[in-house]
Structure formats: structure tokens, C-alpha cells
Amino acid sequence: MKITVNSDKITHTQHNFWNNIHFHPTDAIEDDWGKRILDEVSRENVAQNVRLYTMMEDIVTEVNGELSFDFTDNDTRLDYLVSRGFKPLLCYAFIPPFLADQPDVTSSVAKGKTRYKGKMIVASKAKDYSVWQEICRRYTLHILDRYGAEEVSSWHLQCYNEPDIGAFFMGDLKGDPAADAMIRLREYKKLYRAFADGIDNACSDMGIGKLTIGGPALAHHLNFLEGFLEYTSKNNIHLDYVCAHNYGTYPQALHSGEKPLDVENNYNKYIAYKEVLDKYYPDGIEFIMDEWGASSAGFADKDTTPEMLFRETEVYAAYFGKMVTRFVERGADISKLLICLSGQHEMTEDFSGFRNFFSLNFIKKPIYNAFAALRKLHGNIIFHGELPQNTTLLATKNNSEEYSLLYTYSSKNFDEELGDLHIQTEISGMKNAKKHVKVYRIDKDHINPYRVYCQKGWTPDLSEEQIRELRAIAQFVPCEEFDAKVSDGKMILETILTDNCLILVEIY
What we know:
Elements (H helix, E strand, L loop, with lengths): L1 E12 L6 E3 L9 H12 L5 E5 L2 H4 E4 L2 E4 L2 H12 L3 E6 L13 E2 L13 E2 L6 H19 L1 H4 L3 E4 L17 H30 L6 E6 L3 H13 L6 E9 L1 H6 L6 H18 L5 E10 L18 H16 L6 E5 L25 H9 L5 E5 L6 E7 L5 E7 L11 E8 L5 E9 L6 H7 L8 H10 L6 E6 L5 E7 L3 E7 L1
Helix pairs in contact: 4-6, 6-7, 7-9, 9-10, 10-11
């Protein structure tokens, strides 16, 4: 099969919206294992923006009727992120116990009984939103004082996490989920207004312009999103961006076959969100999908849902590449897309299906290396012709005659054996007579430590030698590297596509 790419025809320019992460647990940044993950992400420039919780419950208490602040842990976390060049997306959460209307309503949102370090979320509304407003004001004054207005102005600040579901907000409601979401909406409007006023007042106190703020970090209830945007738009409430979560399926539906893996699940959810945004902000508003995943539930693993093992394999790499390609092809208006890495603190073995970049013994997973691959894409999208069935191609170039081509090959649900496909890609419009080519391949036989682990019949109690071997296999290095001739401005590439592969070709 022949594919034709005309490098002279740029369809559009595209900013990288996909190399971003939600890092959780936030307080792992205080620990060596959390730092190790983020050190590697920073060193290899795999993520630009990092979302984390402020964890107000760690910061503010009430002493003799007065608010008392201790920013020690917060500063440790943010100092680290800023020093590594990340741009924080700060989620102002959660309600401190003393401010909770029902402090005994708690949740772990984890596989175990508690969150990391024995903590819990107080899933209650606030009993006094003026106090929440003051907490937001004081917190904002602190980060402005510590990091400076110029730096903080480059961050995104958001109000709370998934306030439309009981795991995080008003967990005492146990009725119809859609109806309960509207009850939560009434309280979230108060929470958001106090958040916005608190931050705006801090900016006035400091004599600076407004910071970039948004919400609601929606779980999925469209009626909640519509009600929130109707409120902000009609009342001229400060809202710079809208954020919502986008999970393609969930463990029960994946296990039953009701909703298998399919990148269209994520795209269709984007379309549903965008229709609501356009209704209330027809002139446009920044849209961030601040959590995404092929499936929800970071704490679900092979013990609860065997199908979650896709998170360990080439399937997730191909899924990511295919999803981003579809978003770009269709002109999706997304500012930032952040993969959720939560659940990683509950691992007890290397390959168990948790939602993370690295295994227990710090072995890179294919999804991490897919991020490394997509980081190499350029900003100019160049035209290509028809593609074989089950194939995607995202062809890009920069202004220095350098090219990156991203291929994926998979069935709709990533579950069929398609067999190898030989393709020939002709790239026209090249100026130089010679190019250097690097080919990176993630598939069942390349950059895939889990497949090697299975093939060798190893057990979870890996030896140091086995760990070193798997780490070496997981390194993102080219499988081919060669010089190629350009004749009459054209180059021919020969590529074999294999089941659920992600292939990056660099040409320079």
C-alpha cells in the first residue's frame, strides 16, 4: 500500500496539547519515588503542564476561631515542580475538616481504605463559603509572594475536582446520580464564586492583573456543566477556561464488553462537552481536558478487572497515538490534555494494570514511551492522501526541513489480529539531497518490557538482574537508523505495521 505525503502543503499549524499529566498522589512529590518519576519526566521533556491538588486540608486549620496556615508541604511540592520547569495546573481542593458541613462524610477514591499516607478526602460542602473565599485569597497571596506574579500568571488555577460526583463533593447524597449532580451544582456555584472572588481579591491586594482561573473539573455530568456555564455566563463570573475529564470507558463496561476500548469514546465525549461550551460561550473559551484515560479508575487493576492489563502493553501506546491523531485531524479545539496517573502508589508488583508511567521497580511502560514519541512531533501538519483501513498517520514538519511521522495500526477495539501490513510512504517537496532517518517502534516485540516478562515466564519477585534487563528493554531508542537519498525532491520510506503498533519516524 502506498501513502503519499506532500510536505509543501501545510494543512494547519498545531500546538502540542497532549504532553501533559495529572500527577497523583500530590504528596508523593515529597518522597523519593515521586521525585524520581517527575525527574525522568522532566529530563526527557515528556510533559509540559502538571496538574496537582493544593490539598488545603494539609495547609489550613482553625485555632481559637482564627485561620492558621502552614505552607511547608505545599512549598516543597511547588518548589520542586517549578525548579524542574513544569507549569502547574493547581486544583484548589479539598474542604478542610473544620470547614466541612459534614466532616464525617469522607472517601478514599482508592483501592485501599485510605488515600496515600493514610489520608482521606472530606467529601462535604463547606459550611461557610466566606471562609473558603478567605482561604483561596490567602493561598493565592502566598504563591504570588513566593513565586512572583509573572510566574503564577503562567499557571492555571481551578476550583475543586469532580464536584458533580459524591466521591469528592457532597458524598452524603445517594439518590439518582443526575438529580444529585444538580443538587451539588447549587453548592458548587457558591464554592466557585467564593474561589473566584478570593483569587481576584488577592490580585487586587497585590496590585496585579487577574490570574487565569477556571472550573469545574467535571467528572462527566453534562447537566452539571450546562448549569455551571449558564451561571457564569449570565452573571459575568470570572471564568477564563472550562475543564472536564474524558475517560473512554470504565472498568465494569470494559469487563462486560458493553463499552470496549475505542478512541471514538473519547472523541464523542469531547464533542458533547464542546456543544455545551459553544452554547454558553459562542465566541469561544479555553477548554482543558485536565484528566483523560482510555478507562477511568486508576486504582482498578488485574485483580478487579483483568482487562486493565492494556495499561501495561503496546495497546495503550497505540491508543494514545491514534486518539491524538483523530483529535488533530478533526480540528479539536483543546488547549491542554492531561493523562491521569493516579493510583500509582498502590502498586504491589510491576505489571498489574495500574494507571501510571512506571512500574513498581521503575520500568518504563509503553504509554510513557508513547509520550516520548509524540513529544517529537512538529507544529506544521502536512497533507497526506488516503490511508489503509485501521491505519492512522500524523505527518508533521518544522521550518528547518525536519519531519516527524507518527503511524498507528489497530482494529477499532484493539482486539483483533490484523496481520502485518507493508506500506510505502512517498514524501515529496523535500529540498535537501540527503536525509538521516530514525525509526522508533512500540509494538509487541519492541520497547515492551511486559511482553518480555510474560515470554520469559518471570514472576513478580523479580531479581535485580531481571529488573535491569527490563529497564534496558524499556528505553526509547531507535530500532533503525540510516541515511536516505532524496531524488527529485522525493523520499520513499518502507515500513511494516504490526498489530497495535505505534511507530515514529524522524527525518532530518
